[in-house]
Backbone:
DNA sequence: AGGTCCATGTCCGAAAACCGCGAGACTTCG
DNA sequence: CGAAGTCTCGCGGTTTTCGGACATGGACCT
């Protein structure tokens, strides 16, 4: 049988979000409802064909997300995620989680941090392919000159999330 | 965990053979020992990364193979196989199993039989990618003019198998 | 300041190559 | 004349290859 995943939908201040969790309670994907096709594509790419059934995510996950949007900015740090990309991508995504809320990092700095100072664009790419938005905070990476450059969920949402975390833009 | 497969090795009149079976007792791959790399490649292509552990194939399978080489030409008909290719490939492979021992079919005839009279070379291709040799009798397909044309395990073996089945070549 | 060039990893689409063929045209010999 | 061998070309699914595009940024030049 194929991995059995649960798809939940949550209302948030930045729009409806899709949350995919596995049997172990780890988050496999998180995205905005208006990008559902892309989320499914990423899931399929990393885990192969998958059985996705609508249902309720574990309270632990739902509560953490609610708490985050209510102002407890560290609530998401304790949510377990499970991803499955190339070595490079896993390096990037893992480095992302070490950026605390309220801070930002440039693409170049992040590249340096994983030991590939020159793989700057590649970091941007890996960033864009992050299957677990918000929890793995790809929105905290911005251009070296302070511009927001891009965001898979739309730059507007990136700005909103950063503002919510108290970053000056 | 990944699908757990068993790899057995059997001595036969045409050389040592490799037999891969799954937990359900179905044959996933069967090839000659001197083509091991290709067999592994096919397995990987169809099932993804796979855990292959040396071990004994089910008696049901071992006995059927032994019986076939001992002269019971229909013994292999009852062996369950499990393959995973494109639609076209599955059509071809399934049509192959309906060719009884002692008969041969031309590539063109087989193409016609699956409803694609002109996909002649494609049938040849699909034939060559058959992961389960002998049991799925791709050796019973020969050129329209009676020549053996080719065989993944070497034309010599094709000739030997057909001779064993009582075909005049 | 503003423009050009390139490094870097991954994916995607298009195009080309690959063949376990076979029919038909064309030789070549008796 | 014919029979048998050779050559040429088109057939069609799959795989491989190749070229771009990209959530950047530093060096180097005008």
Residues:
């Amino acid at each position: 049988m194929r991995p059995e995943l649960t798809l939940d939908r949550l209302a948030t201040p930045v729009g409806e979000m899709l949350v995919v969790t596995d049997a172990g309670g780890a988050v496999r994907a998180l995205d905005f409802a208006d990008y559902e096709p892309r989320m499914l594509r990423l899931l399929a790419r990393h885990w192969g064909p998958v059985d996705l059934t609508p249902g309720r995510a574990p309270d632990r996950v739902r509560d953490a997300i609610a708490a985050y949007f209510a102002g407890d900015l560290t609530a998401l740090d304790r949510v377990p995620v499970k991803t499955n990309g190339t070595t490079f991508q896993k390096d990037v995504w893992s480095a992302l989680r070490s950026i605390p809320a309220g801070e930002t990092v440039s693409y170049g700095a992040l590249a340096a941090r994983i030991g590939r100072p020159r793989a700057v664009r590649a970091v941007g790419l890996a960033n864009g392919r992050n299957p677990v938005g918000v929890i793995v905070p790809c929105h905290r990476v911005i251009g070296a000159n302070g511009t927001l450059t891009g965001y898979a969920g739309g730059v507007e949402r990136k700005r909103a999330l950063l503002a919510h975390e108290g970053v000056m833009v």
